[in-house]
Amino acid sequence: MKRAITTAILILVVSALLLALAGRRSVSVGATPAIPQITSQISQQTEVPQLVEDNGQEYLVLKVDDVPGLTVSSVREIALPGVLETTGQVTFDDRLVSTIISRVNGRLEDIRVSQWDTVRKGENILSLYSPDFMTAEAEYLEAKSSATQASSAKLTNDNYGLTTEVSNLSSDLAVAAVRKLELLGLSKEDIAGIKEATPSRWMRAPISGIVVTKLALRGAQVSPGDQLFALATLQRVWIMADIYEVDYARVRIGQNLEAVTVSYPDEVFKGVVDRISPAVDPNAHVLSLRCEIQNPGEKLKPQMLARVRIVTRPGAALVVPQQALVFDGDSYNAFVKVGPDRIERRKVEVASWNEHGYARILSGLKAGEEVVVKQAIQVNALWHAAHGQSS
Fold it and tell me: Are 127 and 200 in contact (CB under 8 A)?
């Protein structure tokens, strides 16, 4: 009898356990979340708000008290100092760069300088052999001789009573011959010194400076238009820098500026704003400045980075706490409180800013508007969750 009772009790216990396990398994299998896991976690703390549309603009129906810890702050407009700071890169002043280009078909016979050599104006750089030199010099000598022989002959024009030179045609031919030699790269001194036609000519340095580019090779064949050397001086350089579109009104040509480099952190280089780009970069909303910098001792070298401080009139900037910005996708966004229970999500453009904890706003917000600061990431998640429910 006792054995029968014990057996019955065991059967009841086992049956109860099996029923409990079966029920637990059925709940686990059927619990498929309707929204992503991060949204499910949010909904446990805050109910997913509704998303409404008004005049094509979407709003999140949300009060400040609906999200624990949520705070808002106003977009502030603050005064900028009378100095505009930016960064740039040193480059050659192209007005101080001269290129030696072949103007004839020929062969390079000799080269006397190499890259980074310092040369003086008028110094022999390379010897170029070309029959074009001989032809042009022969034409010049012949035209010069004809003009000399005919210079004494005169003819009186009976119709007007004027005296004209019979040698006009010969003189014109001589002038044309001189012009041809100049186009081939000969200087006035070279032309005046021609006594006989020769196929070889020395090409001289047009300016004093440094050989920054050398493409010429001894014995190589050249054609008209081939670049052989580039010479430059570093007594004055340019710094190409960018400013934001909102600062354009603060900058003008001729403003004084200072530049500092990593190589010479304790030395300040003086200059002025030389040119302002006529176009704005549509993606970054910046304009380029060409800053003319005096370079005593030629310390500034091309491709160096420099920090530029432009002395200008004070301006204004919009700033918000960095916590108010949420980077989502490929842009920054801020959540603007536009009513007692309305939150608008806006794309904003930001600029570099030195004040810790704040960001400078270029577009997307206005002074006095209230933006979500603390819990901005939580609100962004609610925004996506609301989109998930509405779709």
Answer: yes
Q: Which whole-number Å values give the CA distances from 96 to 212, 232, 234, 236, in the listed order?
A: 12, 6, 8, 8
Q: Does the structure show a pLDDT above 60 at 45?
A: no
For helices 37-45 and 376-390, the axis angle rounded to 10 degrees is 110
DSSP three-state, residue 183: helix
Q: Which domains, ranges and CATH numbers included, belong to the chain?
A: 39-79+317-390 (2.40.420.20), 83-94+234-315 (2.40.30.170), 98-232 (2.40.50.100)
Whole-number Å distance between alpha carbons of 128 and 144: 25
Report the C-alpha gap between 312 and 198 in whole angstroms.
60
Residue 195, pLDDT above cutoff 80: yes
Residue 1 confidence (pLDDT): 43
State both tokens at 206: 């047009």
Torsion angle (degrees, nearest 10) of CA 174, 175, 180, 183? 150
How far is 133 from 182, CA to CA, in rounded Å? 11
Q: By CB neighbour count within 10 A (0-12 exposed, 13-18 middle, 19+ buried), where does 359 fall?
A: buried
Q: Does position 140 have pLDDT exceeding 70, yes or no?
A: yes
Cα–Cα distances in Å, from 115 out to 17, 119, 125, 209? 91, 11, 12, 11
**Tokens at residue 283, please?**
């993606």
d(CA 60, CA 75): 20
Closest to 290 (Cα-Cα) out of 83, 82, 94, 81: 94
Say what the pTM is: 0.59
pLDDT digits (tens, 9 = 90+) for 253-294: 999 999 999 999 999 999 999 999 999 988 888 999 999 999
CB 302 within 8 A of CB 94: no
The answer to whether the beta carbons of residues 171 and 117 sit under 8 Å apart is: no
Alpha helices, DSSP H, located in the chain: 2-30, 37-45, 131-150, 168-183, 188-192, 376-390
Residues 21, 38: Cα–Cα separation, whole Å: 29
pLDDT tops 80 at residue 196: yes
